[in-house]
């Protein structure tokens, strides 16, 4: 979730949605994203909407205390129930993200989930994930989460090498994420993800091999591997500007992506989105699939974004402003946009083209369709699915995904 909010039209104080948002809703899955905006320390590369205790104190976030957070969030879930009215859908996925959700007591995460369950009901096969920092959980904590109804864990491993973790300001030690996977399995979690980052300044090809081997060896059923993005305004961007650490280049990122694909596929993982691999279709993150396929989700928490039937809105970014709105009985939503048909088409191309299933050719405009034909000739799109009416990236296309998407979206 980006930390800079877009401009938009105001949200009505009661959060009401236009009738168009409900058209065809019964056919779309409904998910909940629950944001937890707290971290023990801030990692130098991170641009997410999260606050350390001292950042909260210095920005006057009195109302924003961690102790009251689960209750504020449950209040937004109750508001969601009012806004969605008699919408009969049960919730098919819940994803608690951060920040560091596991800085809160497990009972608080359970309380947040219980609010969704009591207001909407969870589908019998609902996927319920929380992100966790490896140093912030232990077997008892994981057992409590499992008992509360969580069934998928996502750990921020990032790297297996101490010097890389240090550049990223991570506080866990090498080996801890792998132990987390074993602890999560022992606690009864069916699905476990490890997040990795490649292209950190100072990381070598050997370091990246070691990180992939350690991740695979731990036995998760899902791996996300992201190229390090140096976000403007972060500590890492400042260190690179001052020349304290080198910048990695695009060629290095491409080489590391190829290494990831080779290692992960040899270990039985298949890509299903450019940065995501799973051991089988049942191990895919259904919550993320819901974002990528334009389904409906309610994002609760400071700065969280929601999307229901082509209406997109976003909440006040600061935890204090967020809690204040809810305490006054107002929506925490501060801006929204109603997407037109062309916006929705563009969005579909942007998101679906990054999926292994690809995007249907018939949603491309004339210039995009010509670009797709060129991309097949250039080896960027797979010829067989293309002949059957779908644009699916080749491995080379995945390396150049942003450029291919830019061409096809026209
Ligand atoms: C919301 S974040 C953090 C979850 C958790 N707090 C943690 O750090 O383990 C989810 C994932 O996004 C990825 N990420 C965050 N900032 C990134 C950046 N600047 N470049 C690449 N990946 C990033 C990391 O892999 C991280 O685990
Ligand atoms: S712990 Fe996770 S969310 Fe918090 S600052 Fe680090 S990367 Fe960002």
TrEMBL record:
Its main location: cytoplasm. It is found in: Cytoplasm. Residues 24-270 form the Radical SAM core domain. InterPro entries: Coproporphyrinogen-III_oxidase (IPR034505), Elp3/MiaA/NifB-like_rSAM (IPR006638), HemW-like (IPR004559), rSAM (IPR007197), rSAM_horseshoe (IPR023404), rSAM_sf (IPR058240). GO terms for molecular function: 4 iron, 4 sulfur cluster binding; coproporphyrinogen oxidase activity; metal ion binding. Coiled coil: none annotated. One of its GO terms (biological process) is porphyrin-containing compound biosynthetic process. It comes from the Bacteria. The keyword Transport does not apply. One of its GO terms (cellular component) is cytoplasm. Pfam families: Radical_SAM (PF04055). PROSITE patterns: RADICAL_SAM. Keywords: 4Fe-4S, Chaperone, Cytoplasm, Heme, Iron, Iron-sulfur, Metal-binding, S-adenosyl-L-methionine. Probably acts as a heme chaperone, transferring heme to an unknown acceptor. Binds one molecule of heme per monomer, possibly covalently. Binds 1 [4Fe-4S] cluster. The cluster is coordinated with 3 cysteines and an exchangeable S-adenosyl-L-methionine. Belongs to the anaerobic coproporphyrinogen-III oxidase family. HemW subfamily. This is Heme chaperone HemW.
């Amino acid at each position: 979730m980006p930390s800079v909010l877009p401009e938009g039209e105001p949200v009505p104080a009661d959060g009401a949605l236009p009738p168009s948002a409900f058209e065809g809703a019964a056919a779309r899955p409904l998910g909940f994203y629950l944001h937890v905006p707290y971290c023990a320390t801030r990692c130098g590369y991170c641009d997410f909407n999260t606050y350390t205790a001292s950042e909260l104190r210095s920005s006057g976030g009195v109302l924003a205390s961690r102790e009251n957070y689960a209750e504020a969030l449950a209040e937004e879930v109750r508001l969601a129930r009012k806004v969605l009215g008699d919408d009969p859908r049960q919730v098919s996925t819940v994803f608690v993200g951060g920040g560091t959700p596991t800085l809160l007591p497990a009972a608080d995460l359970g309380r947040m989930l219980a609010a969704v369950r009591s207001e909407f009901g969870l589908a019998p096969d609902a996927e319920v994930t929380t992100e966790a920092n490896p140093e912030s959980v232990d077997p008892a904590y994981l057992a409590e989460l499992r008992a509360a109804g969580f069934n998928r864990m996502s750990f921020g491993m990032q790297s297996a090498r101490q010097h890389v973790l240090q550049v990223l300001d991570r506080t866990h030690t090498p080996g801890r994420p792998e132990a987390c996977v074993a602890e999560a399995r022992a606690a009864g979690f069916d699905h476990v993800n490890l997040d990795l980052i490649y292209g950190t300044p100072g990381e070598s090809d050997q370091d990246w091999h070691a990180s992939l081997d350690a991740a695979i060896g731990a036995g998760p059923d899902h791996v996300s591997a992201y190229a390090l993005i140096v976000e403007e305004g972060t500590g890492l961007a400042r260190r690179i500007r001052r020349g304290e650490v080198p910048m990695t280049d695009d060629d290095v990122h491409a080489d590391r992506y190829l290494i990831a694909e080779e290692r992960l596929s040899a270990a039985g993982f298949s890509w299903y989105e450019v940065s995501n691999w799973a051991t089988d279709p049942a191990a895919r993150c259904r919550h993320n699939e819901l974002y990528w396929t334009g389904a409906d989700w309610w994002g609760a928490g400071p700065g969280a974004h929601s999307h229901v039937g082509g209406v997109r809105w976003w909440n006040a970014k600061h935890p204090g402003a967020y809690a204040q709105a809810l305490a006054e009985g107002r929506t925490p939503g501060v801006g929204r946009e109603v997407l037109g048909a062309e916006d929705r088409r563009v969005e579909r191309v942007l998101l679906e083209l990054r999926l292994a299933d690809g995007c249907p050719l018939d949603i491309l405009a004339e210039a995009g369709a010509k670009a797709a034909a060129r991309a097949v000739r250039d080896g960027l799109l797979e010829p067989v699915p293309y002949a059957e009416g779908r644009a699916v990236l080749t491995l080379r296309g995945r390396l150049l995904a942003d450029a291919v998407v830019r061409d096809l979206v026209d």
